[in-house]
């Protein structure tokens, strides 16, 4: 197995790269809770890098506009609907965990079987 060209890696989202690292040799996702937390954090970083998740003096502001990162779009919509939840709860929330993120990449054609 070889790594993709460097420019291909840079076009991928942080959440996607971390999710790819969670694939086992047989193609299944790992069941590690810590891996899911890391991927969730990666998607949050994608939102922050895109300027869609910002912290103000007294709150977190979420822009739920559509982007090219399906998992980030889904997360931003969910976060916008529940603005009272702290970021740590979103990191640990397995309702939008690793399986959800991988499915969003599959649904939009970013990943294929």
Structure description:
With 113 residues, this protein is mainly alpha-helical. It has one domain. Helix content is 52%, strand content 5%. The longest helix has 17 residues. The radius of gyration is 14 Å and the shape is globular.
- Overall strand count: 2
Which regions contain 5 or more consecutive residues with pLDDT less than 50? 1-10
Order of helices and strands: HHHEEHHH
Strand order of the largest sheet: 1-2
Q: Tell me the fraction of residues in β-strands, as a range.
A: 5-15%
Helix content bin: 40-55%
Shape: globular
**Cα distance, first to last residue?**
16 Å
- Specify the structural class: mainly alpha
Rg (CA only) = 14 Å
Note the main sheet. Answer: 2 strands, antiparallel
> How many domains?
1
The number of helical elements comes to 6
Mean pLDDT: 80
Describe this protein with a few key phrases:
mainly alpha; single chain; 113 residues; 5% strand; globular; disordered N terminus
Short synopsis of the structure:
Helix content is 52%, strand content 5%. It is mostly helical and 113 residues long.
Task: Please write out the topology.
Blueprint: H1 6-11, H2 14-21, H3 33-49, E1 53-55, E2 60-62, H4 70-81, H5 87-92, H6 98-107
């Amino acid at each position: 197995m070889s790594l993709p060209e460097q420019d291909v890696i840079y076009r991928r989202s942080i959440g996607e790269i971390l999710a790819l690292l969670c694939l086992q040799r047989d193609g299944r996702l790992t069941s590690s809770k810590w891996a899911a937390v890391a991927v969730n954090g990666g998607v949050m970083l994608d939102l922050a890098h895109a300027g869609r998740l910002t912290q103000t003096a007294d709150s977190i502001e979420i822009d739920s506009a559509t982007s090219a990162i399906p998992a980030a779009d889904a997360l931003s919509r969910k976060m916008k609907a529940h603005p009272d939840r702290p970021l740590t709860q979103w990191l640990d929330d397995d309702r939008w965990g690793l399986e959800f993120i991988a499915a969003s990449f599959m649904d939009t054609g970013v990943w294929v079987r």
